[in-house]
Amino acid sequence: MENKTSNLEQLLADVQKYVNLRLDDFKLRTVDGLSAVLSLLFSALACLLLLNMALIFIFGALAVWLSQCIGSLPWAMLITGGLFVVLVAILLILRKKLITNKLVSILVQLFFEKPESE
User: Fold this and answer.
1) Is 33 exposed, middle or buried (0-12, 13-18, 19+ CB in 10 A)?
2) Do the beta carbons of residue 111 and residue 33 sit within 8 Å?
3) By C-alpha distance, which of 18, 19, 25 is closest to 115?
4) Most buried of 6, 12, 37, 118, CB within 10 angstroms?
5) What is the tens place of the pLDDT at every residue in 53-83?
């Protein structure tokens, strides 16, 4: 009888260790996934800010060049603004294909890809 009790206690201790190890594994996977997502998010944000600054200078230079070509700065700025609106409209139309699908694909790879150790 005493042998069965010690075996049961050992089994319960092993089950508790297993549950704790699985919980630790879950925590590590969560931290790994979140750090990867946050890293991706911050790098994408930095790239978008730099791209935004570049576009400001490019469209500003385009407006100045157009103003010299057509002789009117207000019209050149309106033309440049119209080009910008067209680019934004194209991005809005293609956003699912360009942004959403790629983002979902990246997140699926980060969170659901099996590690090599399993």
Assistant:
1) middle
2) yes
3) 25
4) 37
5) 999 999 999 999 999 999 999 999 999 999 9
